[in-house]
Amino acid sequence: MKGAIAERTGLLGFIKNFVAARKTFSTEQIENGLMAGEKEMLQNGIVAVGDISNAADSFPQKAKRNLKYYTFIEAFDFLPLNAEKEFERARSVAGELEKIFPDANFSIVPHAPYSVSEQLFQQLALLPSPQGEGLGVRAATAQPTKLNGQHSAPNSMASLPTSINSPKSNLPTSSAPSRSSPTPPNKPPSMPTAMLRGG
């Protein structure tokens, strides 16, 4: 997808262009792009990657274990009527990852607070996390800003809910201990840095 999408089109323009561009690539072009991207990362000394996957295209390449991957399978739909369908789509993608790469590290996560309906967010919050990290969510989506000559993502943590609570569930939960301490009142939830991504 590198260079295939027009810049500075806003969120809706980006989504429209992304979906249209994605349909223009053959399976061979996708596979070649994945190999070239991974080769470039290796040449630049990258050893671990947090990757957002909304389809199974990258899973065979990840299964080669050339890099250490953590896959974020994003759910994205702000229409309440589509919550169940999008939830099942994300679970299906996770099932494909487990078939192709049985010991892959992954989580099913909401895209962002503004792009997921309350109904879908509640379903995602009930999913047990295999590694006990809790729920990851994209916190910054604006363009990075320059501060003292350095690029930095904007601080969008203030827009996150003060807590991510879900109704009690009879779903099994992870036995792994939580890596974060309880969230103090009136503060955004703590998330590992790897789970925060500007986009």
Structural class of the secondary elements? alpha/beta
Rg, Å, rounded: 18 Å
Run of helices and strands: HHEHEHEHEE
- Helical run tally: 5
- Strand line-up across the major sheet: 1-2-3
Measured as a percent range, the helix fraction is 25-40%
Strand content: 5-15%
C-alpha termini separation? 14 Å
Low-confidence stretches: 140-199
Q: What about the largest sheet?
A: 3 strands, parallel
- The chain-level mean pLDDT equals 73
Let me know the number of strands: 5
What is the molecular shape?
globular
Describe the structure.
- The chain is an alpha/beta fold and 199 residues long.
- Among the domains are: 1-44, no CATH class; 47-139, no CATH class.
- The chain has helices at residues 10-22, 27-43, 59-62, 83-100, 118-125; strands at 48-53, 68-75, 105-110, 145-147, 150-152.
- The strands form two sheets. The protein has a three-stranded parallel sheet with strand order 1-2-3.
- The chain is globular, with a radius of gyration of 18 Å.
- It starts with 9 loop residues before the first helix and ends in a 47-residue tail after the last strand.
A few lines on this structure:
30% of the residues lie in helices and 13% in strands. The chain is an alpha/beta fold and 199 residues long.
Structure characteristics:
single chain, two-stranded antiparallel sheet, alpha/beta, 13% strand, 199 residues, three-stranded parallel sheet
